[in-house]
Amino acid sequence: MLGGCSSINSMMYTRGNPEDFNEWARMGCENWDWDTVYPYFLKSEGYEGPELSDPNFAAYHNTEGPMKVTKQRFNDPNVDLKLDVLLQSLQEIGINSIEDYNGPTQFGISRGYFMHSAPPGVRSSTAECFLRGGRGGGQGGGGAGGGLHVLKHALATRVLLRGAAAVGVELTRHNKTLHVFATKEVILSAGAIGTPRLLLASGIGRRDDLERLNVKQIVDLPVGYDLQDHLIVPIAFTGAPTSFVDQQNPNPKYSLDYFPYPRLNGFFSVSDWSRPQLQLSPYYFNQSSPLVFKALNNSLNYVEGVVEPIQKANADSEIFMMCLILLHPKSRGRIVYHSVDPLAAPDIYLGYLTHDDDLSIMREGIKKMLRLTESRYFSGWGARAVRLQLPTCAGLEYGSDEYWECYALALARTVWHQAGTARAGGAGGVLDAALRVRGLQRLRVVDASALPAMPSGNTHATVMMLAERAADLIKEEYYG
């Protein structure tokens, strides 16, 4: 998945804000407060960044964990210069530069490149850093003491229950149905979209949903509800005349140094300073290129009326695209399955911006970005926000609050951070604080569907922390 505001999001390493996890504890997830979970973030991390020379930042990182975390590097000093200009411009509108958003403070935008789990050569995925030569395993040896067995070409279809206890999993493999039994418990890790299907297919869910699937209800729980996601809205600004064009070879450059990756990452608020409300991922387009279309159309599915004005502006001017991510949506969506067939696609109702507070925060975030045109650099070039062709907003006064709300509704897209569809904690949670399915024994969920609420940043590091903590909870339960 390359390009647009979605680039390498799944690899970005952002822990979130301490208040995120204190909120989890207030929601009924005992022992998921910041002081409890922080060591689990460190447990996985094998940091290789430059901050380690400064003891003020080294204390916030671990160098010994299996998951390698580093910073993105590019080899274009001209682009680096432009990013420095952008940092100065953001400083002028109240978003300060910081060294490490996983350090003492999260508010601000990183001076260096963003942190991610993809060191040069290979992504530090869970398979690479935990199974292949990682803890308890060695090449091909599996996890703890070689006790992990991965069955390829298999698809889980439901949890096998005996009374109120999970005893195994039904799966299909090479057109055959197989039953695999558990000696202690079953752990589901099929993600925010897949885990609800497995639970519903097993009789765990709301009566109406199970009747539609012709499945007998075993436990009444709100499976598939409470869908949360980080949504993203971009706004593009012109800058200096198009630069870095090779006069002897005017064809657009295709190297990755000219591909619009996010190179900075920041966090700010418009009304609540207990934790960030918005994440900021700026992208820089230094010259007109077909890659711009691929970034915006292929990745985010924007239509020509959105992409063409940006391409046209980029033919004459550099483009700074400021991507705003709503961190703590109050809006909720839902996943609806119409079949227990594991290959059947569900209906996904995202519910973006259906809560007035979400729309207000995004509107005010856009208005804050518009102040960039008043900064020294941007005003010097007569910068403007690129006006897009948005038919749904045609009758509104351009630049009004109503227009920017319509703009946000028209351009909101997913960052692929779906979570909460089998959430833990609270009276309406599917799971208890130990991630066990309520009303059943021997069944646990460990994936993004269990998140009680969204973190202030990309979900990757938070899900890794969840898994590290779940491993300890399981060991404590069975081995003391």
Measured between the Cα atoms of the first and last residue, the distance is: 43 Å
**According to CATH, what is the class of the largest domain?**
Alpha Beta
Note poorly predicted spans: 1-9, 134-144
Biggest sheet strand order reads 3-4-11-12-13-10-16
Helical fraction equals 25-40%
Largest sheet: 7 strands, mixed
Question: Which architecture of the largest domain would the CATH scheme give at its second level?
Answer: 2-Layer Sandwich
Assign an overall shape.
Answer: globular
Order of helices and strands: HHEHEHEEEHEEEEHHEEEHHEEEHHHEEH
- Per DSSP, the total helix count is 13
Give the strand tally. 17
- The number of distinct structural domains comes to 2
Question: Looking at CATH, which topology of the largest domain would you report?
Answer: Cholesterol Oxidase, domain 2
Structural class: alpha+beta
Q: Whole-number radius of gyration? A: 24 Å
The percentage of residues in β strands lies in: 15-25%
Mean pLDDT over all positions = 88
